[in-house]
Amino acid sequence: MGILEDLADKLAADAIDAAEDLGNDDILNEVAKQLGATSTTMEEAYLTSIRIRLSERRARRFLEAKVDKAKEASGKA
After folding, report:
1. 16 and 46 in contact (C-beta within 8 Å)?
2. Taxonomically, which superkingdom (predicted)?
């Protein structure tokens, strides 16, 4: 990735961690607004990273739950 994507992705990861720690998902949009005030390009890269990271996390949890359920059903858990 280039510097834009690297910075946006790192900020996205940190913002997601902060949102979880604080129990406040609004922080994700608040950071986006701060970025948008000076760089819409950075804002879009950040929002893309947020979407990618959150969708991957959701899919991974789904997959883990399915695997765990299958293991329990077969007595391998």
Report:
1. no
2. Bacteria
- Residue 24's domain spans which residues? 3-74
Counted domains in the chain: 1
Note the pTM of the prediction, 2 decimals.
0.85
Average pLDDT over residues 51-74: 96
**Which of 50, 22, 21 is CA-nearest to residue 35?**
50
Distance CA 48, CA 20 (A): 18
DSSP-derived letter for residue 38 is: T
Using CA atoms, how far apart are residues 43 and 6, in angstroms rounded to an integer?
13
In residues, how long is the chain?
77
**What is the structure's pLDDT at 77?**
58
Return the DSSP state at 37.
Answer: T
